[in-house]
Amino acid sequence: MDIVILDLEWNAAYSRRLSGYINEIIEFGAVKCGPDLQVKSSFSCFVKPQVGKRISSTISSLTSITDENLEEGLPFMRAAARFRRWAGECLIMTWGTSDILTLIENFRYFGHAERVPFLSRYLDLQRYSQVRMGWGTKAQVGLAAAAERLELDVSGMDHHRAGDDSLMTLEILRRVYDEKAVEAAADLCDDEFYRRVTFKTQYICDLSSPLVEAGHLRFACPRCGGGTKRTSRWSLKNKSFRAEFICKTCGCPFAGRLIIKEKYEGLSVNKKTFPLPEIQKPRDASPGPIGHMRLEITDGVGLLRFPAFDGLETVNHAFSTRLGGVSEKEFANMNLGMNRGDPNENVAQNFHIFCKAAGFEAASLVTGAQDHHVNIRRVGQPERGIGIWREKDRESIDGLCTDERGVTLVIYTADCVPLYFVDEEHHAIGLAHAGWRGTAAGMARVMTERMEKEFGTDPKKLKAAIGPSICKDCFEVDEPVAAEFLALPGAESFVALPTETDPKYHVDLWECNRQFLLSAGVPEENITVGGVCTMCESDLLFSHRRTRGHRGSNCAMLALL
Which residue in 327, 329, 322, 339 sits closest to 244, CA to CA? Predict the structure, then answer.
């Protein structure tokens, strides 16, 4: 049987039929070989979009595929039929299951078919390779990372195009190939295969679920291994249950975190213990400069502003502090984050208090569903209140933009980077959340390009500011995270390598975002770096790292006047 290595490119497009997003395939790329792994032929085909009107700037930048390329493509079902005729009876391999899941999704959407007609035998080459090379399967190894580990010469290949990616995957297969092992690892694509590959792991977020057993809630003492007593209520934060415990034997206090997932193979229960964090009380602060920002105290409420924005008469902006709210304990005092364990009535009251002090209309607030991606949503009057006073209606929104008055953009942070954008010429604004993933993915540039498309923004006239977040000295990371930044142009300016005295990498998120702004065409003089570290100033601002997650949330706000 021939082997076909398939790679797909796709574009996230909003479907009215689904009332949600679909990963719409825009390119097929594949290579066919026999058991001797010698190339017989290759396949390449653009797919004309039928759901998304335009390819996103992120995908276009990553793959170099343009809207003009796709105009010449075939509708999905015709492209799939052409691929089926070319592939014939074969064993299909992909690097990871994402491409197969996207293929199934597209056949269900466009062909109303539950199965992929040309999929009879399948091998997840990523998992197979990781097992063969002894890399383990706990963490997924990306295609480029695997090629680097195997010291493959991939010069001249575009690592973000389907055709070249399939060739790179073939080179990896040649290093790990064993005909009998491949035969044993390959799946027969029957009903059980489809149930397994499409099964979506579910987090258990309700302790009253019948799947939760009493033993799941018990923790052993991390010091002596003895029995413990829970001393606080369970709280749900980021899909994990958390509580405080004390050892009955040695008296050791600690925090426990419990994550329960329902997987296809069964229930997964993960427990971790942590030292109880030292929760600082909010400091007694006086108005004045902090970094390149200014602390203002209004009616006991502390807020940070950029002096560089003082001359902008068309916008109001602010960044919250811990000063002036009604929350208590680790949420003291101005917590603006819902679903962190702080009573919602406290958070709602804090929003009203902060908005009054900062000059925003509380009813005008709108936020997104932040998940560390670079998806941006244009909002207006109909979206007022979403995410705060109304339920979130979209998933995966880390950036907001508007050109309408009476709409206040809101971003949550607690070490991640808030990015402010002001286009005075077209009376438009943008606000973005950039954690390390969003920063590395170029959220600063993506927002600049999105405002250019939406409002005609000239990057040379755009004003941008980088708000309070973790600084380079505090943001120490391990090699996998550092590798994401080291792959970026100019990495030497924002990545510090380990030394004899400090074994960790350090990443300057402020400088990395600034470099992306510069690459997008924003002049250096139009970029302000606030220079306020949430971890260094943790008695003024909430810091996730400082408190090991026991904290409230800061908010960045931006509105047109």
Answer: 329
Cα separation values, 62 from 30, 97, 272, 441, Å:
19, 20, 37, 10
Nearest Cα residue to 404 out of 516, 248, 559 = 559
pLDDT band at 328 (very low <50, low <70, confident <90, very high): very high
* Domain spans in the chain, listed from the N-terminal domain onward: 2-198, 203-274, 289-560
Beta strands of 406-481 (E only): which ranges? 408-413, 417-423, 428-434, 463-466, 476-477
The secondary structure of 504-532 as a DSSP string is SEEE-HHHHHHHHHHHTT--GGGEEE---
Angle at 488 (CA atoms; ends 487, 489), nearest 5 degrees: 125
Q: Do domains 2-198 and 289-560 have the same CATH topology?
A: no
Q: How confident is the model over 185-203, as pLDDT tens digits? A: 999 999 999 999 999 999 9
Q: Is the pTM of this model over 0.70?
A: no
Assigned CATH class of 289-560 = alpha beta
Strands (E), 299-358: 301-305, 315-320
End-to-end Cα, the chain, rounded Å: 67
Tokens coding 77: 């079902």
User: Quick one: pLDDT at residue 100?
Assistant: 96
List the CATH code of the domain at 2-198. 3.30.420.10
